[in-house]
Specification:
about 280 residues, mainly alpha, 11 helices, two-stranded antiparallel sheet, about 60% helix, 2 strands
């Protein structure tokens, strides 16, 4: 039975709030930097905006142990690939694109559309795409029994009410954006509304919220890369959230956003330096 978030009163310790604020500033600065260097009018680095989105989708998939090389992913995006993993990761790219496109209205219908974009590309799972599950799900053991599972999702008949509460929570504007992102993501994972693809859809939801709230308006910061950097802590924090302690989750999420901002900025800086160097005219001795 997930808690309700829509009317939750939050009392955040000062050190944790400071961490949230620092990460928020770093993410906003990265978004401004990226907008300046990766804007569509910038012919040299403009295409990197799409690469950042694909990097985020790939990192999110890798958290689920779905890996694919850059070449195979590119071939699949051109409809010329034959890798099943690449097809699944392309589904995650489509889910990310859908999340950004639909971010202006964070409602249940659009969340279903995000999931449809994800699972429609996953062989064997097409009939589950864009629909809430009707069966029990669990994590951490075999597919035959939930005995020994690390997490068992709520009964299917609870999903509609839980998702309606989550959407109401997303409409609140009295909460720091990164705190809202962290709690909404953890709540989504706890509801586990789909037969498959919950983690990837839940991480796409993070970017829909960041875009909706204006904290990352121009590009996709590689937040999942930060979560991938500390996967064990990330999963442990989700467990702590389900047991009533949200502090570890918020801390892990803020650190992932700091990582996203710093690594993203470093990537842009290095690429710009390389392109500037190669574009420099040769000088005769």
């Amino acid at each position: 039975m997930p808690i309700t978030l829509s009317d939750l009163t939050l009392d955040v310790p000062a050190p944790l709030m400071a961490l949230i604020e620092d990460a928020s500033v770093a993410l906003a600065q990265f978004d401004d930097t990226a907008a300046h260097h990766l804007g569509e009018q910038v012919h040299t680095l403009g295409p990197m905006s799409a690469v950042l989105l694909r990097t985020e989708a790939t990192s999110s998939s890798q958290i689920e142990h779905l890996t694919v090389g850059a070449k195979n992913l590119a071939m699949e995006l051109l409809h010329e690939g034959n890798s099943e993993n690449a097809a699944v990761v392309v589904g995650n790219v489509r889910a990310m694109e859908s999340a950004l496109r639909l971010s202006a209205d964070l409602n249940v219908e659009n969340l279903l559309s995000m999931h449809n974009a994800l699972l429609s590309s996953q062989p064997g799972w097409e009939r589950y795409a864009g629909a809430f599950r009707t069966q029990l799900v669990w994590v951490g053991t075999d597919s035959y029994t939930p005995r020994g599972a690390s997490f068992v999702g709520p009964q299917p008949e609870l999903i509609d009410a839980c998702m309606a509460d989550l959407v109401l929570f997303l409409q609140r504007d009295d909460i720091p954006v990164l705190l809202q992102c962290a709690l909404a993501h953890a709540q989504f994972e706890t509801i586990h509304p789909f037969a498959d693809g919950n983690g990837r859809t839940g991480r796409a939801l993070i970017h829909a919220i960041l875009r909706n709230k204006g904290l990352a308006s121009h590009v996709v910061p590689p937040v999942s890369a930060g979560l991938l950097h500390e996967t064990d802590q990330y999963f442990a924090a989700l467990t702590a959230f389900r047991e009533g302690d949200a502090a570890p989750l918020v801390s892990v999420f803020a650190q992932a956003c700091q990582f996203a901002a710093s690594s993203g900025t470093e990537l842009i800086t290095q690429l710009e330096a390389q392109l500037t160097y190669k574009a420099a005219p040769c000088r005769s001795a």
